[in-house]
Specification:
Structural class of chain A: mainly alpha
Distance between the termini of chain A: 54 Å
CATH topology of the largest domain in chain A: Arc Repressor Mutant, subunit A
Number of strands of chain B: 0
CATH class of the largest domain in chain A: Mainly Alpha
Oligomer: heterodimer
Radius of gyration of chain B: 33 Å
Strand content of chain B: under 5%
Helix content of chain B: 55-70%
Largest sheet of chain B: none
Number of domains of chain A: 2
Shape of chain A: elongated
Order of helices and strands of chain B: HHHHH
Helix content of chain A: over 70%
Structural class of chain B: mainly alpha
C-alpha cells in the first residue's frame, strides 16, 4: 500500500543508508508538523514533537510491515506523541462553551464566508479550528485536510468506528458553531468600517 | 431523512473550508538538525548492537557454573569423563554466624511474593507487546 518511492527509501534505511531517511523526512515533515501544530497550538512544541516522531520512526522502521501507507504509520506515531505532550502540558485550554447550532444556519454562515477574501477566510477557519478541543480538532484535520479515510483514522487513533463517527459529527457541528460565532461580529465590524 | 441531509450539508461545509487552510512548515533547518540527531542515533545503535558478553560466552559460563556445582556431589567413581576431584571441605572450616537463625517467613508471605513476581513478569510481557504494537 505504501508508495513505491517510500518503500524504496525504507528498504535503503533498513539496509543502513541513513541519508535515505532524509527523503522521507522531506516528504512528510509538513504533514507531521501541521498535525503537531494543530494539536498543540505551539510552534516550538510542534517542532520538538515532529523531531521525536521522526526519530521514533527511524528507530522502529524495521517494524513497519507495509500493510498500511507509510504516511498513516507515521501519522500514528505523531498523533500519540502529540497526545503524550498534551498530557504532560496541562496548560492546554480544553474547555469551551459552545452554543447549540441549528442546521439551517449552515447556509447563512456559508454566505458570510463566501463574502470574505480567500486568504482571510483560510485564516478565519484556521483560528476557529484552533478553538476546538484537541481531539475534535485533530479528527477534523485528519479527515478534511489530510483526507485520511475512516479506516485510516481508526488505525491512527484506535477509536472504534461507531464512536469515531459520532465524534466526527460532533466536531463538525462545533466547528460550524464556532465559525458562526466568530464570523458574524467580524462581518459587522468590517461593514461598519466602510 | 432530514438529519441525513443536514449531515451531508455539514460535511460539505467542512470539506469546502478546512481544505483552504494552509499547511504549516517547520523551520528551514528542520531536516538538517533532525538528520544530525539521527546520525547520532545510528552510531549509537551500531555500537550498542555488539554485546559485551556474547550469548555463546554466557552459555559457557552457565555450563561451567552447573558443572562446578554438581560434579563434586557425583558419587559414582566411574564416569564418562574423569574430572579432577575438587575438595569442598574448606567450606566447613569457614564458620559464619547464622544471621537468619530466628527468621521465619510464613507460607502466605511466600505465596504473595511468588504471585507478585508472576504478575510482574506478566506485565513486562504485556507492556512490551503494547509498545511494540504502536510501531507496527
Amino acid at each position: 500500500m505504501t508508495t513505491t518511492n517510500d518503500q524504496l527509501y525504507i528498504n535503503k534505511v533498513i539496509k543502513g543508508d541513513v541519508n535515505a531517511f532524509a527523503h522521507l523526512v522531506d516528504a512528510y515533515k509538513n504533514m507531521v508538523f501541521s498535525l503537531a501544530f494543530k494539536m498543540t497550538k505551539n510552534r516550538e512544541e510542534a517542532e520538538e514533537i515532529s523531531q521525536d516522531t521522526f526519530i521514533k520512526a527511524y528507530k522502529n522502521i524495521h517494524k513497519f510491515k507495509g500493510d498500511s501507507k507509510f504516511s498513516t504509520w507515521l501519522y500514528r506515531i505523531a498523533y500519540h506523541a502529540c497526545l503524550d505532550a498534551i498530557k504532560k502540558n496541562k496548560n492546554h485550554n480544553n474547555s469551551l462553551e459552545i452554543n447549540e447550532i441549528t442546521y439551517n444556519q449552515i447556509a447563512s454562515v456559508d454566505t458570510i464566508l463566501q463574502g470574505i477574501e480567500r486568504k482571510e477566510r483560510a485564516k478565519v477557519i484556521n483560528d476557529c479550528l484552533l478553538k476546538l478541543p484537541e481531539e475534535e480538532r485533530s479528527l477534523i484535520w485528519m479527515f478534511y485536510f489530510d483526507e485520511l479515510s475512516l479506516k485510516e483514522i481508526i488505525e491512527v487513533t484506535q477509536i472504534p468506528e461507531a464512536n469515531l463517527k459520532v465524534k466526527l459529527h460532533r466536531a463538525r457541528k462545533k466547528l460550524l458553531a464556532i465559525v458562526k460565532e466568530n464570523v458574524a461580529p467580524e462581518i459587522i465590524s468590517h461593514y461598519g468600517r466602510k | 431523512m432530514e438529519e441525513n441531509r443536514n449531515t451531508i450539508e455539514l460535511d460539505a461545509f467542512a470539506k469546502k473550508y478546512v481544505k483552504e487552510i494552509h499547511t504549516e512548515s517547520p523551520s528551514i533547518d528542520f531536516t538538517a538538525s533532525l538528520m544530525g540527531k539521527i546520525v547520532v542515533e545510528h552510531q549509537k545503535s551500531v555500537f550498542s548492537s555488539k554485546a559485551l558478553i556474547s550469548k555463546k560466552v554466557w552459555f559457557l559460563l552457565f555450563a561451567s557454573l552447573i558443572a562446578i556445582l554438581f560434579i563434586p556431589f557425583k558419587k559414582s567413581e566411574e564416569g564418562l569423563l574423569n574430572f579432577p576431584r575438587i575438595d569442598f571441605s574448606f567450606l566447613d572450616k569457614i564458620q559464619m554466624p547464622n544471621l537468619f537463625e530466628n527468621f521465619s517467613v510464613s507460607n502466605t508471605v511466600i505465596y504473595a511474593i511468588c504471585f507478585f513476581g508472576l504478575m510482574f513478569m506478566a506485565q513486562v510481557v504485556l507492556l512490551k507487546n503494547h509498545f511494540n504494537k504502536r510501531f507496527e
